[in-house]
Amino acid sequence: TSIHEFFGASMVQAAYCNCYPLLPDRLAYPEHIPVEKRKDHIYGNESELSGMLKDRILNIEEARHTETRGFVDRYDWGVMAPRYDDYFREISGRDA
């Protein structure tokens, strides 16, 4: 993870591809994880990261079958394109 990050684009891309995220509790990262899932994906310090990483290694099949795309699918182009279209129509004053 980055030290300086405004959005977390690479993390969003990885989660969209169902890579299991383990993320620090800082910057934009927590915003991308549903509140009810944060205890499984967000760590506060190196000791927590170490424990979470060990748990994921020992339970690798569970991690491999964890669906994470839903954490970030709101950014999918199929969702965002119509929003951009509506926005640009609105600011341009055009109906079509």
Molecular structure report:
The structure is a single chain. By secondary structure, the protein is mostly helical. Helix content is 52%, strand content 4%. The chain is built from 6 helices and 2 strands. Strands 1-2 form a two-stranded parallel sheet. The longest helix is centred in the last third of the chain and has 16 residues, at 77-92. The protein is elongated, with a radius of gyration of 17 Å.
Which key phrases capture this entry?
96 residues, mainly alpha, two-stranded parallel sheet
Quick one: overall form?
Answer: elongated
Number of strands: 2
Oligomer: single chain
Beta-strand percentage?
under 5%
SSE topology string: HEHEHHHH
Q: What structural class do the secondary elements suggest?
A: mainly alpha
Q: Give the helix level as a range of percent.
A: 40-55%
Measured between the Cα atoms of the first and last residue, the distance is: 42 Å
**Sequence of strands across the biggest β-sheet:** 1-2
What is the residue-mean pLDDT, rounded to a whole number?
93
Please work out how many helical segments DSSP would assign: 6
Q: Mind describing the biggest β-sheet?
A: 2 strands, parallel
Indicate the radius of gyration in whole angstroms.
Answer: 17 Å
